[in-house]
């Protein structure tokens, strides 16, 4: 019987990754690796830098230039913990990015960090870009914060953009309480001819009164 040639062992993906990590893993080298042309090297650099002093600054510096979806996801995951107000301010600038994954990542990161988000709400409310204000409303609608309803009231009462107000009312339809009834007439009078805003206001009234009955 003829001898069969043994198949060459196939290197696992982990082995391939490890081969790319055989040089010294100093913090300086890892930060440099964030700009590598190899996405695997960049992704491993994110993993190895996580938790180190100054890592968040390096990640935030890299994010606007990163194009690989898996690396972007790794960067946002690494930023989830120990966010400072300064870091939050940098993340919120990504709400203006043309890159959809960066915008969505910034929204999700703020939803996971309600404390640092709260410190920036008033600034976002005054942003000149209505799209940025809408993103702020989206975050408020999902964030677990005691002031969430009050922030939505402020948008509904004070914002001049009908799309922003409509989005704020959409979120109030999900989380409104009895205090919301006090502002609805004022909001109604601000947009008397806007059919959708009028519809959502009626919906909120019915929902809140139904809960109270």
Automatic annotation (TrEMBL):
Gene3D superfamilies to which the protein is assigned, alphabetical: Leucine-rich Repeat Variant
Keyword ATP-binding: no
Region described as Disordered: spans on this chain: 1-34
Record key words, sorted: Lyase
Pfam families on file: HEAT_2
Gene Ontology MF terms in the entry: lyase activity
Highest taxon of the lineage: Bacteria
The keyword Mitochondrion is annotated on this UniProt entry: no
Descriptive protein name: PBS lyase
């Amino acid at each position: 019987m003829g001898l069969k040639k043994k198949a060459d062992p196939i290197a696992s993906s982990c082995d391939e990754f490890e081969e790319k990590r055989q040089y010294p893993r100093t913090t300086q080298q890892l930060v440099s690796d964030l700009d590598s042309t190899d996405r695997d090297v960049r992704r491993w650099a994110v993993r190895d830098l996580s938790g180190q002093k100054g890592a968040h600054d390096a990640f935030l510096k890299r994010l606007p230039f990163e194009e690989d979806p898996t690396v972007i996801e790794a960067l946002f995951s690494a930023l989830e913990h120990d966010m400072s107000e300064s870091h939050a301010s940098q993340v919120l600038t990504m709400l203006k990015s043309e890159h959809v994954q960066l915008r969505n990542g910034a929204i999700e990161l703020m939803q996971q960090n309600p404390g640092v988000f709260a410190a920036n709400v008033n600034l976002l409310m005054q942003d000149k870009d209505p799209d940025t204000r809408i993103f702020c409303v989206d975050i408020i609608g999902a964030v677990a914060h005691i002031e969430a309803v009050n922030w939505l009231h402020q948008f509904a009462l004070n914002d001049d953009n009908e799309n922003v107000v409509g989005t704020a009312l959409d979120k109030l339809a999900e989380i409104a309480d009895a205090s919301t009834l006090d502002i609805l007439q004022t909001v109604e009078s601000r947009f008397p001819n806007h059919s959708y805003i009028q519809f959502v206001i009626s919906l909120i009234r019915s929902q809140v009164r139904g809960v109270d009955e």
